[in-house]
Queue: 2 jobs
Job 1
Amino acid sequence: MLRVGLSGGIGSGKSTVAGRLAEHGAVVIDADVLAREVVAPGTDGLREVVEAFGAEVLGPDGALDRPALAARVFGDERALATLNGITHPRIAARTAELIAAAPPDAVVVHDVPLLVEKDMAPLYHLVLIVHADLDQRLVRLRDRGLPEEDARRRIAAQADDQRRRAVADVWLDNSGTPDVVLARVDALWADRLVRYESNVRLRRHAPYGPPVVVPYDETWPAQARRVAARIGLAAGGRTVEHIGSTSVPGLPAKDVLDFQLGVRSLAEAAELEEALAQAGFPSRGLAEDGVRHEGHAPEDWHKRLHSGADPGRCVNLHVRVEGGPAWNWAIRFRDWLRADAAARDEYAALKRELAERHRGDDTDLGYAESKEPWMAAATARVAAFYRDGQTS
Ligand code: ADP
């Protein structure tokens, strides 16, 4: 099962996108629909709302008078907290029930208007944000019967584009005609979501192609923050660090995000295997780091390796003993490259040369092996960098 979070500002076209995903076979859970269901006539949710706010929040037909309730809680934090205390647990329980009832190979799309505001992004394997420019949203909402004044007020109360961008694994621009965004959804479904789902279910990581070194990508840090938040949540809040070449600003690299996750022992790492797999990072088993330093036992270089299941985002996750030699080495190596421009240029040149030499390879193993001598020689340079007060 794949969990996809879908959000976007009001009038952006979220429902349009959700509808298309449903046509492809996604199980769409609409948070707005559930919010209405849990206080529908005859529910104990509605009974509790009436107990808390009085019969004046009911219409003549006995159903909830939403505008009356909205007016009652508007600007009153305690009243709003009371209302949320009634509705939120019920919505959460119903959502969990619907997810549990979905088939094991489902792509579950959770359509949540307040996904960003409620910091829900790390719960999902992938977050889709639908965007349209403000003016277009106002026109579309007006055509849907919402006066501009009301639309503006609701938009102002929602998260801004910057916050939405920060959580978007996929940013769907719906500023054009509907067919443009629908074609993008079709491609996303076929090229990414279906494969991602089967990878998660079958505990397969996304395939690695031949090594291709690309220029530094300014979006890597933001991408890394999103992935790290997912890993951290799956691993019960343990330390997650972005490491490797993509963590060094300015350095060309293979488009693979590397992370290390801190554990107290490799036995503890093994216990996290299932949670990480379910979060989209299946295990590749026990592995060994190539770099060796004097004065350490071979097992100091053992780790558990996981990789990402998302075919649209290559990820390697090294689960290492936090504060141990392998953990410290990864951080020191990164920080040395961040600090030393000459070392960075030298490493960049080596990477380009090796990628060229291994261009015809099926995997990146040959490339990785050819890098070892330079890496081994770097240990002395990194040690000197730290010994000499971070100037080399
Ligand atoms: P949301 O669910 O994000 O509030 P909707 O999907 O309901 O937004 O879209 C808002 C309105 O705009 C709807 O009436 C919808 O039919 C219309 N709409 C959606 N996408 C487009 C588009 N690309 N061009 C024109 N109108 C659109």
Job 2
Amino acid sequence: MSKDKNKNDKKDYKVALLVVLLLVLLVLAIAIVFILGNRNNEEKKDDKTLAYTDLIKEISYGNIEKIEMTVGSTNVKVKMKNEEEEKKSIVPNTEAFIDLVQGKVAEGNEIELIQNPRGILERISSTLFSLLPTLIMVALFIMLFKMQGLGEKGKVYDDTERKTKVKFDDVAGLDEEKEELIEIVDFLKRPDKFVKMGAKIPKGVLLYGKPGTGKTLIAKAIAGEADVPFISMSGSEFIEMFAGLGASRVRKLFEKARKISPCIVFIDEIDAIGSRRSSNNGAESENNQTLNQLLVEMDGFSSEETIIVLAATNRPEMLDKALLRPGRFDRQITIPTPDLNGRLEILKIHSKEKRLSDDVNLESIAEDTAGFTGAELANILNEAAIIATKRKHEDIENDDIEEAVKKVTVGLEKHNRVISDHDKKLTAYHEAGHAVVSQYLPTQTPVKEVSIIPRGVTGGYTMYKSNEDKYYISKTEMKEKLIVLLGGRAGEKIALDDISTGASNDIEVATQIAKDMVTKYGMTDTLGPIDLKGKEDYEMQLFGETIGDKIGEEVKKLIDEAYVNAQQLLNIHRDKLDVIAMTLLEKEKINEKQFNEIFND
Ligand code: ADP
Ligand code: ZN
């Protein structure tokens, strides 16, 4: 945020404060006038006061010499013919009273009727009083708008003056994706060229991908390459506070985009506004307004307005189909998690400004981090720098980075935690169970490290070498993965005839894999290759009512089978299980080389 904007925000804040202050003063003033007025009224209730009915009587008797009134006031002063002192009275309806008096005068009665202009105090008080509701409303509206204004300004990154400096070179990997997007850069730079050719220019590009895969980064890079401003907002920010605000924010965003076009508008988490319009609850209809506004805006650009809307989501299946129609987000690009080479490139980019020691092997770090996103890799290098500093290293060593990887994946080592011998034994057999089982399963990768030093929330861990990036996983591989996952519990059961909570995460992961096998990958004979994942109830009914039961049965069958297999393997190789567990109890941690030595002994 620039300094100017800060100043503006402060100014708005002051205005709002002033309005509130004025309002308070106003209310106070009115209260005082009111109290004073009331006191006057009370004073009138002595013997100098003439009741209205008596006043009317006196007038008709012809006893009144002079009546003095003030416009807008019901208080009147009355001078009787036979009395020195003036009396006061209150008339309920001044107009009717004046008519009455003037009628008497016309009849020939001598009554002097004086109508004074209003007194200052009365004039102010009555004016304020009649204006009060309006004033309060106006003040409230001003405050409301200021508040909305403040909220919005805080949220749109205002990069109109400071264009982004990010270039395609800052985005590692993603070569094919960049190639697809280069066209947009061209278009932003020279729209006329395309228009002349009669080419239809894309308005919206949807980027699909997990958080941290670089969607924002690449959107910024497009703006940077084209040298145009980048304005952005997050979908979740559109839906909050007051109803209708989301839509007005969308309108403002595009108003601004039109002013500074050519430009890039980036909407992060678009699923928050653009999710399917199914139910009719409040939040949903608020979404609809926002979504509709977005559609209106996108349909409304003319070809001279060079605005490209990029939007990001990791839940494409949630999106309202209306967003994907021609002329809207008709292009979709998937931003994948980086492959081996991509990870290496990302590690290189993010280690540029860091002091790496010569022993750092980024290739092997890239190998160990399959499935990591760009953001996670950047985070690992940052953690490594912190660890290196704590360890008082000259520069970042390979060990520091490896420790950072573990810290990010399993948490920090907790050497000080006190663990009972029984728990230690359970953990040792648990981890040994995983490790030994995996050695006998051909699709599984070799063990890299086994440890029973607590880390984060886990009591121990077994790390495997990552396999080269794969696009497909076979059913055999998934089944063997289940066996490895249940190998932990099997180890505890076989060696100690007891089981612990330590397997809870294994069970969670295994269940998820088994569910996916059944409902997503169609890997069972009974259910077959049918997509059953995350289906609505009514869709499920297409397949008959018992489908849920069948899914449950199949999942249970897969898990049971894997557990039996794991126990069988460990029973056969009980010697290996014991020796690994004992070594763990003794050393707490075994690396790849040590593991292989013990195992092959
Ligand atoms: P997303 O928008 O997909 O959630 P971001 O673009 O915000 O992800 O990425 C967060 C950070 O991760 C980036 O600022 C960058 O530091 C790093 N990063 C992610 N992907 C890449 C990449 N391909 N190349 C370089 N850095 C990356
Ligand atoms: Zn485990």
